[in-house]
Model the fold of this input.
Amino acid sequence: MRIVVGFVLFCLSVAAADLPPNIVVILADQLQANRLHTYGNPRPTSPNIDALAAAGVQFNRFYSVAPWTAPSHGAIATSEYPSRHGETLYLVRTSPPAFTPDTVTLAQAFKNAGYHTGAFVNNAVAGPYLLGKGFDDFDLQVGVALTPASKAENTNPRIFSWLDKVQSNPFFLYIDYWEPHSPYAPPPAHDLFKSDAYPDQTTVGFDANPAELNLVRWANLNDRNAVTRIVQLYDGFVHYVDFYMGQLVDEFKRRGLYDNTIFVISSDHGELLYAHPEDYLTMDHRSLYDAALHVPAIFFGKGISTGTTVNALASNIDLAPTLLDLAGAAPMPASQVQGLSLAPLLRGDPTATIHKYIFFEQDLTEQLRGVRDKRYKLILNLTTGRKQLFDTIADPSELVDIASSYPKVIARLSAELDQWRQANENPSATLSRWKTMLPNPGPVDLVDNVTSGANLQLTGDRWHLANRPDDYNGNAYWAEPAGPDEPVRTALWRTNNLMFGTYRISMYYGSINVDGVATNVPITIKTRNGDYSLRLDQTQNPGKWQVLGGTYTDPLAVVLSNQANGRVIADAVQFEFLNH
Done:
C-alpha cells in the first residue's frame, strides 16, 4: 500500500510540474507593511505571513502608486499608473466600466491563456465596474461596517467552495480581504496588544456606530493614549486577517494544490495611523507619505526561492507583468504596460532591470504627485506648488523636510517628475471626464467633525471637544482665541473629490460648554481663483446651517481661524454643487 500511495503522489507531482501554475493574489485591504512583524513591527502581529515570507521572497521596498483603493487596484489590474488608467476620483458605480475597451486587464490575460478566473472582493470600491473585466466569477461583498459576508472568516468558505469547482484546471484567483480596513474591530482572541490605554474601547473607524468614534475624536485632540489604542486595534485586526491567510494556504496544501501554485501577498495601500498629523490628522489613508504607500509584497510557492529579501524599488504596477511572466503566459500589450517583471529578481538574477524611479499620485482631498529614487523622495502639491523632500534612508518616517538643503536633488527629481507627468497626464481630457462623471447639480458633500481622509484638519494644539445636543451629530471642537504670543489654530474642511463648478457653502455650529463664543470668527473660502474672507458671529443661530456669503467657483477648502474676540467652534461644513 505504501508503494502504491507513493507512486500516486509521485505521478501527481510529475503532472503538477507539467501544468501551468495556478496564480493567487492575496490582498489585505489597507495593510501598512511596517505593521507586519516580518517588516519590523516588534509585536507578533503576523505569524503566518512571517512564515510564508521565510518560505519565499520578501520585497522590502514595494509601494502602491496611490494611497487608496480604486487607483491602486486599477494599477494592479492594468500595470498602468492611475493618470493613465483614469480611476483617480471616488466614483463607485455600476457603470460605465473603469477602463477603455482596448485595455487588457490581468484577469483577461490569464483568461486568454486558458485559466479559469475568479475574484473574491470585499470592498465595493474595487467592484466589477473596476475589476470585473476578464473574470469568469466575481464574488463582491460591500465590506462596510463589518457586514458578516465580508469578514475573512466567512470569505474563506466561499473560496473553498469555488476551488471545488475549478481546481482541476489552472486558475487565477484574486482575493481582497476587507481586513484590516477600518473599522478596526479585532475579535477578542486577536485583540492581543491592549494596555492601559483605553482598553474598554474595542472598535474604532469611520464606518462604525457614532458611539464608537470616541478614539478618533480624542486622537484628533492629540491624545496619545487614543492613538496608542487605535494602533493596537489595527495590529489586532492584522493578526485576525493573518490567521485566515494562514488557513487559506493550509487549505491549498490539504488539497494538494500548493506545489503547483504561485502566491503573492500584498495590499492596495497602507494606513497613516496619525503618522503625519501636521497635515493629515487621521488614521486613514491619504497623502503620499510612505505610511500610506508602503505595502508588503511576498511571493512564495512553485519555483519561488526561499528565505530571500529584495531591496530593489518596486511597485504594484509590476505585479501584472511579474505574474504573467512567472506563469509563462503571454504578456499584456507592451504599449499599455508601465511596470516591469520582477521575475528575474525572484529568480536571483543580479543583472535584472530594476526601477531607477517610482512615481505616485493622489487626486483625492488635494492633488499630489511624487517620485522617489533609491534614497530621496519628492512630493509636489499641484495646487500650492509646495515641494517636500525626504531622505528615506536616514529618515524612513519622513519627519524632516530637507527640501531647502538639497536644491540639486530637488531639481533632478522635479525634472523626472515633470517628464513623467508630460507622458502620463492629459489635464484637459481628465477635467472633461471628471465633469461628466461627477454628480449633477443638487448633491451636497458634508464634512462633519469626525471624518475619514483628514477631510477636517485641525492645526495647533489645545483644541477641546464639546458634546452638546445642538452640535452636529452631538459633537464639535472648539478653541480659545489666539493670544498675542500664541500660534494660530485653524480648522480646515475639504472634500474627498475635487470640486469643479459653482457651489454654495454653509457652516453648521452648535454650542459649547462654556461662555464667551466669538462674534467675529475669521472664515476663508479657498478656491482655484483666489481666497475670499468673511467674519461669522457664532453666537447667532446655533444649531442651524449658515450660508457663507454667496456662491464660489471651483472651491478647494474652508478655513476657520481662532484669531477672534472669543472662543471659536469647528463643527461641520457642507458644499452644495449648483452648476458647472
